[in-house]
Amino acid sequence: MSPKNVLGTELKSCSCSPMTGWYRDGSCRTDISDQGMHTVCAVITEQFLSYSKAQGNDLSTPQIGFPGLKKGDHWCLCAPRWKEAFEDGMAPLIDLEATDESTLKLIDMDVLKKFSHNR
What we know:
The protein has helices at 46-54, 79-87, 109-114; strands at 38-43, 74-78. With 119 residues, the chain is an alpha+beta fold. It holds the Pfam family DUF2237.
């Protein structure tokens, strides 16, 4: 059985450049060992990068094995972090076709649709 997205269709790739995902295969699929729930395919913004850095998660600075993110990159974010950013008015748009269906356990579909990059 292939993974599904929040729309109930086949989960699409989020990004292979930069390579993202819990499995580092470009997909926002997950499993029970993924404590962070890296399931939301976000379209990164400067605003979100600044917000994330202020929260203690610097996603913009390159590190060994990580190129650092920039505006426009697609990246599998942790669903709880995206929800926190949403609640703080800083959430980036998301690719619904590349966001894993398990995200719906934490974030309502109506909210996700409002932040759809696919519109």
